[in-house]
């Protein structure tokens, strides 16, 4: 029913319906009558209509994406690789635009130029105060993945060697290299630091002894390897390989009697001690197996690599904990770009040494500058309604049994993720479970939707998930799966000016975004954490609106307002 229409006017379907409060002859006003909806039924109907409209809108967006040949997240290396394989150009604005690098933003939208300029002025002032001779950041050479490419001495390739290293390749052709020295004469091929996922015609290189495909987009070793009976070594590190026969081609590699060295280090899905044991058992001819074994009970990380096994175990007030979310490559870049130190070689200088040198640089300078930003004020009635729903959620969770946090790597009393209805179209068991979960918390979702729409309706139509938390504390982390910035609001009786979102803007600048009863916009692809607040006698609730599906937004500034204090 249209609440603004004349109660006695006919609806669009032509049916005459009385006002909900009007008495119908022969019935009490509170009794259910055919054609009459009670107030609770009206609310339920309105809710289902809004949900149906939301799902229909998201379905249209998904169908449009499918027509372009791509569905799913474009975040991270895997997402960009999927897009490239489907012919979608994701390199506009520079191939480094998908990740935060820890320095100046890679690509700056026109509306963010003033924000970036203000933050850079603070960074430059702080840098010059400590390093007067360093008037600007040092240039850091990088490959197409954004990884630092340390300068190396010019080398003379041996006879029979072909190098296509760091050529920005997404396609490979044996015709190109065959014209150089002849396919059968090639003994070493280096195609590292490109964006390749296949090597068609590789089986034609019958004399090949050494193959380097490191730092590419391979999800499986090239099938042509089985024909290379002279092959001695393969470097497939920094790809997207998995610890199974299909990806590693173990059955085929077992037929290569000359194979002695296989490097699959830094493939995130090949990182367990059991994986190493399986590979050695199936490839007994190997003398050297390179594999990055993830820290666990049996294989702890080397001393100094990390402090604490997760963000939940780290003291967010300590600088090292704030730097820990960065990759080792990002820390290496920072040493060069922001502190003028010589580039470090990953082969000889590990993460622990890089971190120690970086902390030494920071120790020689004043503490990092904290600038303040106020989020957009949210109307009192939205804050009230949302806080009521959050308290109901916590009470229901505590009454349901032992507490389980959905994100144990984060320190919080309660943590829950709700996924938008658009994700349920796939019909998978996971989607059905998420849909049931959303249905159980429909009121919370709807109240949160109204709150975000009141501030940023455009983002309100795009976000794909909610992170709902109670007493989130510290926990510096990076949201690697996000395809763009998030909006966040915090509520509760914690003190004003405390419990904001702290986010690193650059090497020497951190922003504190006030989100109490406000909607703050932050790019979670930079390290961020919650500022201190008293937790014994007060509560802090928060809702984060974020997006992991859809078009990837290039990384710009970490915040989206010029700070109120500079």
Task: Write a brief caption for the model.
By secondary structure, this protein is of the alpha/beta class.
Could you please describe the fold and organization of this structure?
28% of the residues lie in helices and 13% in strands. The protein is of the alpha/beta class and 566 residues long. It has a 6-stranded parallel beta sheet, with no helix packed on it. Strands 8-15-12-17-10-9 form a 6-stranded antiparallel beta sheet. Helix 9 packs parallel to helix 10 and helix 11 runs antiparallel to helix 13. The chain starts with 38 loop residues before the first helix and ends in a 20-residue tail after the last strand. The N terminus is likely disordered.
Helix content: 25-40%
Largest beta-sheet characterization: 6 strands, parallel
So what's the overall shape? Answer: globular
Mean pLDDT metric = 82
> Gyration radius, to the nearest Å?
28 Å
- Tally of individual helices: 14
Strand content: 5-15%
What is the CA-CA span between the terminal residues?
52 Å
For the secondary structure, the number of strands is 17
Strand order of the largest sheet: 1-2-3-4-5-6
Poorly predicted runs are 1-35, 64-72, 92-98
- Given the helix and strand composition, which structural class is it? alpha/beta
Structural topology:
Layout (H helix, E strand, L loop, with lengths): L38 H29 L8 H10 L27 H18 L30 E3 L10 H8 L6 E3 L19 E3 L20 E3 L9 H4 L1 H4 L7 E3 L9 H10 L5 E3 L28 H5 L4 H10 L13 H13 L5 E6 L1 E2 L2 H20 L14 E6 L9 H12 L1 H14 L1 H4 L4 E6 L3 E4 L8 E7 L8 E6 L2 E6 L3 E5 L5 E3 L9 E7 L20
Parallel strand pairs: 1-2, 2-3, 3-4, 4-5, 5-6, 7-14
Antiparallel strand pairs: 8-15, 9-10, 10-17, 11-16, 12-15, 12-17, 13-14, 13-16
Helix pairs in contact: 9-10, 11-13
């Amino acid at each position: 029913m249209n609440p603004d229409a004349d109660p006695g006017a006919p609806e669009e379907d032509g049916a005459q319906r009385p006002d909900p409060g009007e008495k119908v002859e022969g019935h009490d006003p509170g009794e259910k009558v055919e054609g009459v909806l009670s107030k609770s039924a009206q609310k339920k109907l309105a809710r289902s209509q809004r949900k149906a409209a939301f799902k229909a809108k998201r379905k249209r967006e998904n169908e449009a994406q499918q027509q372009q040949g791509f569905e799913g997240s474009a975040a991270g290396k895997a997402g960009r690789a999927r897009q490239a394989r489907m012919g979608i150009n994701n390199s506009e604005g520079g191939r480094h635009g998908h990740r935060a690098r820890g320095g100046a933003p890679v690509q700056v939208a026109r509306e963010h130029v003033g924000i970036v300029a203000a933050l850079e002025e603070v960074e430059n002032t702080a840098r010059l105060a400590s390093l007067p001779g360093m008037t600007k950041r040092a240039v850091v050479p990088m490959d197409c993945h954004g990884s630092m490419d340390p300068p190396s001495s010019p080398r003379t390739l041996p006879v029979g060697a072909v190098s296509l290293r760091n050529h920005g390749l997404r396609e490979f052709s044996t015709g190109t290299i065959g014209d150089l020295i002849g396919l059968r004469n090639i003994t070493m091929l280096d195609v590292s630091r490109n964006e390749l996922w296949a090597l068609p015609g590789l089986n034609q290189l019958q004399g090949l002894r050494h193959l380097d495909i490191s730092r590419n987009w391979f999800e499986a070793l090239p099938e042509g390897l089985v024909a290379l009976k002279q092959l001695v070594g393969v470097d497939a590190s920094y790809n997207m390989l998995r610890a199974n026969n299909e990806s590693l081609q173990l059955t085929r590699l077992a037929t290569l009697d000359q194979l002695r060295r296989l490097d699959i280090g830094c493939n995130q899905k090949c990182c367990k001690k059991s994986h190493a044991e399986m590979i050695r058992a199936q490839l007994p001819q190997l003398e050297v197996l390179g594999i990055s074994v993830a820290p666990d009970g049996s294989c702890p990380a080397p001393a100094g690599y990390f402090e604490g096994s997760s963000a939940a175990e780290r003291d967010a007030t300590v600088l090292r904990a704030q730097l820990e979310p960065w990759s080792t490559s990002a820390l290496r870049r920072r040493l060069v770009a922001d502190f003028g130190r010589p580039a470090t070689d990953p082969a000889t200088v590990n993460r622990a040494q890089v971190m120690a040198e970086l902390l030494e640089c920071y120790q020689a300078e004043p503490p990092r500058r904290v600038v303040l930003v106020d989020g957009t004020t949210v109307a009192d009635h939205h804050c009230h309604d949302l806080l009521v729903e959050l308290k109901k959620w916590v009470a229901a969770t505590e009454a349901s049994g032992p507490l389980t946090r959905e994100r144990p790597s984060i320190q919080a009393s309660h943590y829950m993720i709700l996924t938008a209805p658009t994700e349920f179209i796939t019909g998978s068991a996971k989607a059905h479970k998420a849909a049931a979960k959303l249905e159980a918390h429909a009121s919370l979702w709807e109240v949160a939707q109204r709150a975000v729409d009141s501030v940023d309706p455009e983002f309100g139509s795009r976000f794909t998930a909610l992170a709902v938390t109670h007493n989130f504390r510290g926990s510096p982390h990076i949201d690697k799966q996000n395809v763009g910035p998030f909006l966040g609001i915090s509520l509760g009786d914690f003190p004003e000016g405390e419990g904001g979102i702290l986010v690193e803007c650059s090497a020497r600048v951190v922003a504190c975004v006030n989100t109490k009863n406000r909607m703050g916009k932050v790019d979670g692809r930079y390290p961020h954490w919650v500022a201190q607040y008293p937790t014994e006698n007060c509560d802090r609730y928060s809702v984060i609106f974020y997006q992991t599906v859809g078009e990837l937004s290039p990384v710009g500034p970490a915040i989206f307002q010029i700070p109120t204090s500079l």
